[in-house]
Design a protein that fits this description.
By secondary structure, the protein is of the alpha/beta class. Helices cover 43% and strands 13% of the residues. Strand 7, helix 11 and strand 8 form a beta-alpha-beta unit. The longest helix has 15 residues. It is globular, with a radius of gyration of 18 Å. The protein binds zinc ion. Zinc ion binds next to strand 1.
Length: 300
């Protein structure tokens, strides 16, 4: 069975630099190393070496391909370089704010020159309405380029921001999956990926997916949001989601991000156990664990 991970963050040196911009306690000459040290992480080093380290880590765990998310606006180029070095293993996603002043140029460059394949929206982070001209332009560009749109809905916490004491003025009201229902139906050729089953807004995410066959869920992270639902288990989540959207619209993912932790094998093990408990067939399991990702993002 081929394993593809639909949700990994590429925490490059540039990512750490951009994240801590304006924080004077880190020296400008080797900021990324100092930030990594404070976090207890291995310094990311160059894009090349970080990309190679992920390749080794994936091989060790039997992972064929992985999405890499540029996780702050301005770091698209790091992921583009990693993808250029390992084009059959990596698929580039990038965090994007459609309401930013330079949005049009960023979008054009990321999907064009940089060859990234999914726009990653975090509406709660940037207070994006999405149902406006800028949201429309984003989906139009994705449709024109054959790219996907990833939309982080529901609860949003960024662990690294918390750890560094950076403010997280997120407004999760903007992260309601219903915000994208209209766009998803208007652009039926654009795959829309909702991570973590809607991260707490499972019902709304299912309603949107039930209406729009181009809506997918990624299964990534420990899905800690299930605590919002009394008695809910991950097994019940998979069972419900499979009964509503079937086995072709689930993308396995881990939400792996930094070293030395590396690839999050426990997430894979836990989700594999859930699929076994639910008696999911080998064929359906293969689609969830990698086949659906391959269909959405065929190797270039
Ligand atoms: Zn993530």
């Amino acid at each position: 069975m081929k394993i593809c991970d639909a949700h990994c963050h590429f925490f490059s040196s540039r990512y750490l630099e951009l994240l801590t911009k304006g924080r004077n306690e880190f020296p400008d000459d080797d900021r990324a190393t100092a930030v990594a040290k404070q976090l207890g992480w291995d310094p990311p080093g160059s894009v090349d070496s970080l990309a190679d380290r992920w390749i080794t880590e994936m091989a060790r765990n039997g992972v064929s391909r992985s999405a890499l998310i540029a996780s702050i606006p301005g770091d698209e180029v790091s992921v583009a370089e990693a993808v250029a070095k390992h084009p059959t293993h990596f698929v580039g996603f990038f965090m994007f704010n459609p309401d930013a002043p330079d949005a049009a140029a960023t979008l054009e460059r990321a999907l064009g020159e940089h060859k990234l394949r999914a726009v990653a929206l975090f509406p709660a982070m940037f207070s994006n309405q999405l149902r406006n001209a800028n949201g429309l332009k984003t989906f139009e560009a994705a449709a024109a380029r054959g790219a996907a749109v990833f939309v982080h809905c529901g609860a949003l916490t960024v662990g690294v921001r918390k750890k560094l004491g950076l403010p997280s003025r997120f407004d999760i009201r903007y992260g309601n999956p219903l915000q994208i229902a209209g766009l998803a139906t208007q652009f039926p050729t654009v795959p829309v990926i909702i991570p973590h089953f809607g991260a707490g807004m499972l019902r709304e995410a299912l309603m949107v997916a039930d209406q729009a066959p181009n809506v997918y869920f990624d299964t990534s992270s420990s899905n800690g949001w299930i605590k919002y639902y009394p008695g809910l288990t991950l097994e019940a989540v998979f069972k419900t989601v499979l009964s509503v959207v079937g086995p072709d619209r689930l993308l396995f993912g881990t939400d792996s991000s930094f070293f030395p932790r590396g690839w999050q094998r426990p997430i894979f093990d836990a989700q594999s156990a859930v699929l076994s408990a639910l008696d999911v067939s080998d064929d359906h399991r293969a689609r969830i664990m990698g086949g659906n990702f391959e269909r959405l993002f065929p190797s270039a």
